[in-house]
Design brief:
InterPro entries: Glutathione-S-Trfase_C-like, Glutathione-S-Trfase_C_sf, Glutathione_S-Trfase, Glutathione_S-Trfase_N, GST_C, Thioredoxin-like_sf. This protein is an alpha+beta fold. It is 54% helix and 8% strand. The protein is built from 8 helices and 4 strands, in the order βαβαββαααααα. β1, α1 and β2 form a beta-alpha-beta unit. α1 crosses α7, α5 packs parallel to α7 and α6 packs across α8.
């Protein structure tokens, strides 16, 4: 099973992190992002969106980190990381949606501006961050984990761009429960770091 990967990508890291925590072996294939390798064959043939990560598992080819997390959890990790019952699955999935929306467009986008020079509206990324981080911190003041009172793919999805928020000029100093949650994730057996974390 191959993961086409960029070490500095939080979206790629979500997949690497979950696979490490769940003991799922991956063959990591580094993509030369700056040279545009993801925009040319054979990668553009695997993902016409021209984005990474891309997971290739035999005949199954998937794009999008959230979708890849769901696939790996359901196919290889049993009920623990993503339960099959409607309520449990929906509880996890709402956090994957938060990751792909509020977090990606808040602290994730702020990091793109500061670290990689993307031409995005920095003030908007900061406004979005200022809205979502207090909500997450309040949730974590009552729960050790984002969903189901245990680590799930919800934590893997949300973790990277929240933990990397300072690289976008978004401080976590006012969010003690987020900082404690970050340390809980780092203490999980199998945890792997990425640059910046």
């Amino acid at each position: 099973m191959k993961l086409y990967d960029l070490s500095l990508s939080g979206n790629c890291y979500k997949v690497r992190l979950f696979a490490a925590l769940a003991g799922i072996p991956l063959d990591i294939v580094a993509v030369d992002f700056l040279a545009g390798e993801h925009k040319r064959p054979p990668l553009i043939d695997l993902n016409p969106w021209g984005e990474i990560p891309i997971l290739e598992d035999g005949e199954v080819v998937l794009r999008d980190s959230q979708a890849i997390l769901v696939y790996l959890a359901r196919r290889y990790a049993g009920e623990t990381w993503l339960p099959g019952d409607a309520t449990g699955m929906a509880t996890v999935m709402q956090w994957l949606s938060t990751s792909a929306n509020e977090i990606q467009n808040g602290p994730g986008a702020a990091r793109l501006v500061d670290k990689f020079g993307y031409q995005l509206d920095k003030a908007d990324t900061l406004r979005r961050s200022a809205r979502i981080l207090p909500l997450i911190d309040a949730h974590l003041s009552r729960h050790a984990w984002l969903a189901l009172e245990r680590p799930t793919i919800a934590d893997c999805a949300v973790f990277p761009y929240v933990a990397l928020a300072p690289e976008g000029g978004v401080s976590l100093s006012d969010f003690p429960h987020i900082r404690q949650w970050i340390e809980r994730i780092k203490a999980l057996p199998g945890f792997v770091p990425m640059p910046g974390i």
